[in-house]
Recover the amino acids of this structure.
């Protein structure tokens, strides 16, 4: 289930993509057997809820990831990678962060964090994978001010303190979550504008789980197509040609999975 981008919202802070990968996704079809493919202008964050996956990339990285750990890959000018899931059951969230102008042309990099801070808030346990909350600060590198928290919610109201400079998104993972006065179900997203310094979240008996994502507004208009985050079509067309023509821009990925060829951008004339 892709909950962002939507027609109503393209970014929340610098977060620009949120995909929920359910348990059946790793059976047929299997999106976590994704062969080598390229990225520009973004950071990918892989957050697993269940199972295990293996990340490989053109920097030479080969890194398993398990629930509670973070794989953070930053593309900059260009990187390629592949993702291979272990045996099901498997579920997780794939997240993208748009890089600002200051860093999006830089070098690619990768980091794996296997220990992340936790903090108790009212009726919830918060695992902070990006940014900081109530004194718990993630060591993950960011290019803009961001927040990424995985909340295990118990019955009752939990008030999450937030930065009023941040716009926020609440992404239910398990169970329905009441966000302020709005009811938000899994597969949907609860949007919270800037200016809020306390975010009340409520779940019923049985509890629930949700991501809280946020950040200062990016302040830059982005253009997304396929696996590329850019500012205009010319940049995307150039990246498409580099991948199609197998230049050294994206490098080689040490993976046994089949390389994914890029579809032609719709604005390019079909070949004669």
């Amino acid at each position: 289930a892709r909950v962002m981008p939507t027609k109503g919202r393209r970014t929340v802070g610098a977060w620009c993509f949120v995909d929920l990968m359910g348990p059946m996704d790793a059976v047929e079809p299997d999106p976590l057997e994704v062969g080598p493919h390229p990225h520009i202008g973004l950071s990918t964050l892989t957050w697993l809820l269940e199972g295990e996956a293996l990340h490989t990339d053109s920097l030479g990285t080969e890194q398993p990831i398990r629930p509670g750990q973070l794989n953070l890959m930053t593309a900059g000018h260009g990187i390629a990678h592949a993702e291979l899931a272990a045996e099901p059951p498997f579920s997780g969230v794939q997240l993208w962060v748009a890089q600002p102008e200051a860093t999006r042309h830089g070098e690619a990099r990768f980091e794996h964090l296997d220990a992340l801070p936790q903090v108790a808030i009212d009726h919830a346990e918060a695992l902070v994978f990006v940014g900081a909350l109530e004194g718990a600060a993630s060591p993950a590198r960011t290019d803009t001010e961001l927040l990424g928290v995985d909340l295990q919610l118990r019955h009752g109201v939990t008030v999450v303190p937030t930065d009023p400079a941040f716009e926020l998104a609440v992404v239910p993972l398990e169970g329905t979550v009441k966000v302020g006065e709005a009811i938000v179900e899994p597969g949907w997203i609860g949007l919270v504008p800037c200016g809020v310094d306390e975010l009340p979240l409520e779940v019923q008996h049985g509890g629930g789980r949700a991501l809280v994502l946020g950040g200062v507004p990016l302040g830059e208009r982005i253009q997304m197509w396929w696996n590329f985050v850019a500012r205009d079509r010319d940049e995307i067309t150039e990246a498409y040609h580099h991948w199609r023509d197998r230049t050294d821009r994206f490098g080689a990925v040490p993976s046994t999975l089949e390389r994914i060829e890029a579809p032609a951008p719709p604005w390019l004339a079909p070949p004669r």
In short: Residues 55 and 105 are 23 Å apart (CA to CA).
